Amino acid sequence: MLKNKVVLITGAGSGIGRAVALVCAREGASLLLSDIDEAGTEATAALVREVGNEALVVLADVGVATDCQMLVERCCSHFGRLDVACNNAGISGPSLNTADYPVDDWNHVIQVNLSGVFYGMKYQIEAMLRTGGGAIVNVASILGAVGFATAPAYAAAKHGVVGLTHTAALEYSAQGVRVNAVGPGFIRTPMIEALDNDEATHAMLVAAHPMGRLGEAEEVAELVVWLASARASFVTGAYYPVDGGYLAR
What we know:
Elements: E1 6-10, H1 15-26, E2 30-35, H2 38-50, E3 55-59, H3 65-79, E4 84-87, H4 103-130, E5 134-139, H5 152-172, E6 177-184, E7 187-188, H6 190-195, H7 199-207, E8 215-216, H8 217-228, E9 239-242
Parallel strand pairs: 1-2, 1-4, 2-3, 4-5, 5-6, 6-9, 7-8
């Protein structure tokens, strides 16, 4: 589905980002992998290279606009173009009610999870327009559609990602740039493992999903790669939950 395509993935050092990288590699893409976690991203790159695909590792903090600009510039200078971007990098922040939430933590979560997507798209879209178009898939969350007690910054940021996705799709789809978002439920990743640390919490998280289990990163990656491919050529401005039925309750 992505043969001869160049794909940029943020948050590629583990979890959903790593899974997206491996599915993209399976589908024939060349990859720019980015994260702040050098060891994790190099490990992802090694897995990509094992299947015979090229992987360039570039460390960057998506919460810094100049880092996001640099990622796109490195991608275009190395590969000659940018066809697909998956804006996946994100952080959870502390679990606290709104009135108790520290301002510094609020600013950090918004900076990475929302501003980071804006910064990425700003430079990714510019590059894609120069070569006739492309596809962007933003990793939002089920919390891009509903609230969640003790996660005010995360929910606000992910709602913002969905709104930004809708807006950019309206602006650029006629010029060949498709923009979509996915909304993972609770997926087995290092972020969730830190939360899912006892039997009672695990049972609560599982019970929230009508399918009766947590999701796997590979299940999110399959949807991301479909949205990035020509098979989704008439899909733009969409928000696709991949949540085991969480939002259907």
